Amino acid sequence: MVEWTDAEKSTISAVWGKVDINEVGPLALGRVLIVYPWTQRYFGSFGDVSTPAAIMGNPKVAAHGKIVCGALDKAVKNMGNILATYKSLSETHANKLFVDPDNFRVLADVLTIVIAAKFGASFTPEIQATWQKFMKVVVAAMGSRYYIGILEYQQAPEICLANAAFSH
Amino acid sequence: MSSALRLWEGQSKRSKMSLTVKDKSVVKAFWGKISGKADVVGAEAFGRMLTAYPQTKTYFSHWADLSPGSGPVKNHGGIIMGAIGKAVGLMDDLVGGMSALSDRHAFNLRVDPGNFKILSHNILVTLAIHFPSEFTPEVHIAVDKFLAALSAALADKYR
């Protein structure tokens, strides 16, 4: 399974500790909807998302951004067991919400960019590397229940994580 | 969900994610703002890529020092960003403009084109760090599209 050194755990907690979910969540989700407009397909009931200004001012987008970012908190607090922590969230996204799991990677990359903009130069290459490892594991865990029809993933979910670790 | 085609300002109906007139002008304007720091951005983005995506180091196994601040890393990052800066002026024909570099990457360097996306991500991270207020969502989408089109042009000769 995923191994975290003490340094990695404390880096991830330190980064997360400085993130204001209520600010960063809406910024990240809004930016995803602007930069990758096809993601708007999941938010038909959110009202006006017709322009960047409409998206960044949309209260439903902001509220949802806080929810999504808030869920990351569980991963930070359960770093040794992210796969199990996200099992039911993954199932919900796969079987009820029908979200393409590539979107998890897209959101993770945009979140990293938003955090980088907030932190500036203190988001060093080494801290970025650790944070991106954490994002990769979260993204793989969120995608893990999409593959339950495939025997190898049923028997060894770590394979799913390992394979995900080799894609961007 | 509405099936109406929503068009943003400057968009027109077209068959693929090509650069619009607006994309090109946003990229040119932004590049004008960052040009003084382009070397620094290139050096840092390249160093971030090597650090956060260690599999990319395989192409530089002949360098002694692959740490983010090292001489070769800074120098090479600057070279890459210089080429990208030139491409800003070639946006009307990226495939033609990148032809020689595409030959080089395809036949000499043989860099897996998946890595262009990885470097692009690190360029975006570095731009966000150095230009947090200028790197708005509108600039982000235009630069992301430009880097994707540039990557495709660079991979054009691969097969």
Question: Can you put this structure into words, describing what you see?
Answer:
With 168 residues, chain A is an all-alpha fold. Chain A is built from ten helices and no strands. Chain A has one domain: Globin-like. Chain A is globular and about 45 Å long. Chain B has seven helices and no strands. Helix content of chain B is 61%, strand content 0%. The N terminus of chain B is likely disordered. The relative contact order of chain B is 0.17. Chain B is mainly α and 159 residues long. At the A-B interface, helix 2, helix 3, helix 7 and helix 8 of A face helix 2, helix 6 and helix 7 of B.
Q: How much is the radius of gyration of chain B in Å?
A: 16 Å
- Could you tell me the strand content of chain A as a percent range? under 5%
Overall body shape of chain B: globular
| Number of helices, where a helix is a run of at least 4 consecutive DSSP H or I residues of chain A | 10
Protein name (chain A): Globin domain-containing protein
Domain Globin (chain A): 3-147
GO cellular component, one term (chain A): haptoglobin-hemoglobin complex
GO molecular function, one term (chain A): heme binding
List keywords for this structure.
heterodimer; A: Globin-like; globular; B: 159 residues; 7 helices; disordered N terminus; transport (chain B)
Question: What is the gist of this entry?
Answer:
With 168 residues, chain A is an all-alpha fold. Chain A is built from 10 helices and no strands.
Topology:
The complex is a heterodimer of chains A (168) and B (159).
Chain A: H1 6-17, H2 21-35, H3 52-57, H4 59-77, H5 82-85, H6 87-95, H7 102-119, H8 125-143, H9 151-155, H10 157-166
Chain B: H1 21-34, H2 38-52, H3 71-88, H4 94-97, H5 99-109, H6 114-130, H7 137-154
Helix pairs in contact in B: 1-7, 2-3, 2-6, 6-7
